[in-house]
C-alpha cells in the first residue's frame, strides 16, 4: 500500500505522522513547497508543489486530500478522473463546500469505483459508537432531546481556508445526528460572522417524531468543548468527547460519583474508552481499499451532512424555518 498526502497543514501533518507509523507514506505535496519539505524531511519521503507531480512520480494507491476546504472538490474530481492508479481517496471534512460540488465528487468516485472516505473523524471516536449503541438498545428509553456542544478557537487568519462554522465543525455533529435520527424535520439556525464568514451558530432540528437536536457551534470560544447530552424517557447519557467519558444516569436513581470504570457497568457508573480517532480513520481507509468495503463515513454520509449544512445556511440567510429530511443510508 502506498499513500500520498496533498496539503500538509495542521491535519495533513497528523495524517503524515500516522501514515509514516503505518509504513505506507510515499510522498507529500503542498503549494508551499517549503512547508511540504519540512514534513517530507521529517519522514524521509519526497516533497512536491502539487498533487500531479506527487502522483506521477510515486504512483500511489491512494491519496489523502487535506487542502483548504474550497479546493477539495476540484482536486478530488481531477484525481478521480485522470489517474487510474488511485484506488482510494480520503478527503478531510467536509467533502466539499457546497452540496452541488459534493454530488459531483460523489458521482465521479462512485462511477470509477474509488473507495472514498470523508474524515468526519468524530464518528471514529469510540465513545460516539458506544453512545449510539446504548441509544439503539434502549439503555435510556426513547431519546427525546440531544444537545451537541462543539466550541473552540480558530485564529481569524485560518477561517477563509476552513469555510463557515457549519461546514467546518458542524458536519461532525450533523453526521452523528443522522445516525441517531431519521425522517422529516424542521430546522432553524442563527449565526454571527467573522470577516463575512459564519463563525458561530446555533442550530435546532425538530423531527416529526418529537425528538429535538440542538447544536451550539463556535470557533470564537476560549477553550475547547466537545460534549453531548442525550435525554431519554428513562435516563440520560452525558458524553465528554475529549475526555472520552460517558456517564449513564437513570431517572429513578440518585446521582453517582463513580468515574473510573472502563466497562459497561450497572446503572449510573461512568464508561471510559480510549482511541485516537484520526488513526482509526486511516485504519478504516486502508482496510477498505484492500477489501473494497464501504468506509464508516462514506460519500453518502458526507452528502447527508452537507444537506444539513446548506439548510442551516439557508435558515440564517432567510431568518426562516427550513424543512429537511434526514435519509441515512445506514
Task: Quote the distance from N terminus to C terminus.
Answer: 29 Å
The largest sheet has its strands arranged as 14-13-12-11-7-10-9-8-15
Remind me, CATH topology of the largest domain? Dihydrodipicolinate Reductase, domain 2
H/E topology pattern: EHEHEHEHEHEHEHHEEEEEEEHHE
At CATH's second level, what is the architecture of the largest domain?
2-Layer Sandwich
CATH first level of the largest domain: which class? Alpha Beta
Output the radius of gyration: 20 Å
Give the CATH superfamily of the largest domain: Dihydrodipicolinate Reductase, domain 2
Shape assignment: globular
The beta-strand count equals 15
The assigned structural class equals alpha/beta
Compact description:
The chain has two domains: 3-121 and 280-297, NAD(P)-binding Rossmann-like Domain (Rossmann fold, 3-Layer(aba) Sandwich); 122-274 and 306-326, Dihydrodipicolinate Reductase, domain 2 (2-Layer Sandwich).
Keywords:
alpha/beta, Rossmann fold, 2 domains, nine-stranded mixed beta sheet, 10 helices, globular
Describe the structure.
This protein is an alpha/beta fold and 330 residues long. It has two domains: 137 residues, 3-Layer(aba) Sandwich (Rossmann fold); 174 residues, Dihydrodipicolinate Reductase, domain 2 (2-Layer Sandwich). Helices cover 37% and strands 30% of the residues. It is built from ten helices and 15 strands. The strands form two sheets. A nine-stranded mixed beta sheet has the order 14-13-12-11-7-10-9-8-15. Strands 3-2-1-4-5-6 form a six-stranded parallel beta sheet, sandwiched between helices. Helix 1 links the parallel strand 1 and strand 2. Helix 4 packs parallel to helix 5, helix 5 packs antiparallel against helix 10 and helix 8 crosses helix 10. About 4% of the residues have low confidence.
Amino acid at each position: 500500500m502506498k499513500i500520498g498526502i496533498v496539503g500538509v497543514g495542521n491535519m495533513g501533518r497528523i495524517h503524515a505522522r500516522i501514515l509514516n507509523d503505518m509504513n505506507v507514506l510515499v510522498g507529500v505535496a503542498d503549494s508551499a513547497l517549503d512547508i511540504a519539505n519540512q514534513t517530507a524531511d521529517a519522514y524521509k519521503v519526497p516533497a512536491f508543489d502539487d498533487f500531479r507531480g506527487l502522483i506521477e512520480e510515486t504512483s500511489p494507491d491512494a491519496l489523502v486530500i487535506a487542502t483548504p476546504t474550497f479546493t477539495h472538490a476540484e482536486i478530488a474530481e481531477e484525481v478521480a478522473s485522470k489517474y487510474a492508479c488511485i484506488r482510494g481517496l480520503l478527503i478531510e471534512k467536509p467533502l466539499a463546500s457546497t452540496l452541488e460540488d459534493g454530488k459531483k465528487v460523489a458521482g465521479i468516485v462512485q462511477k470509477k469505483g474509488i473507495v472514498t472516505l470523508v474524515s468526519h473523524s468524530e464518528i471514529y471516536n469510540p465513545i460516539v459508537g458506544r453512545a449510539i449503541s446504548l441509544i439503539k438498545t434502549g439503555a435510556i428509553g426513547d431519546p427525546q432531546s440531544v444537545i451537541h456542544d462543539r466550541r473552540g478557537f480558530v485564529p481569524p487568519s485560518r477561517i477563509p481556508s476552513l469555510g463557515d462554522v457549519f461546514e467546518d465543525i458542524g458536519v461532525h455533529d450533523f453526521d452523528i445526528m443522522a445516525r441517531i435520527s431519521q425522517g422529516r424535520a424542521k430546522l432553524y439556525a442563527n449565526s454571527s460572522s467573522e470577516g463575512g464568514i459564519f463563525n458561530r451558530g446555533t442550530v435546532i432540528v425538530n423531527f416529526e417524531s418529537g425528538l429535538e437536536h440542538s447544536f451550539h457551534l463556535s470557533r470564537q470560544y476560549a477553550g475547547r468543548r466537545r460534549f453531548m447530552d442525550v435525554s431519554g424517557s428513562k435516563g440520560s447519557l452525558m458524553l465528554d468527547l475529549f475526555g472520552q467519558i460517558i456517564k449513564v444516569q437513570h431517572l429513578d436513581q440518585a446521582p453517582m460519583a463513580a468515574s473510573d470504570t472502563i466497562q459497561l457497568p450497572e446503572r449510573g457508573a461512568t464508561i471510559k474508552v480510549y482511541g485516537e480517532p484520526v488513526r482509526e480513520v486511516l485504519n478504516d481507509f486502508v482496510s477498505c481499499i484492500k477489501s473494497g468495503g464501504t468506509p464508516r463515513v462514506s460519500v453518502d454520509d458526507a452528502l447527508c451532512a452537507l444537506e444539513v449544512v446548506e439548510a442551516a445556511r439557508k435558515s440564517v440567510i432567510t431568518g426562516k424555518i427550513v424543512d429537511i429530511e434526514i435519509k441515512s443510508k445506514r
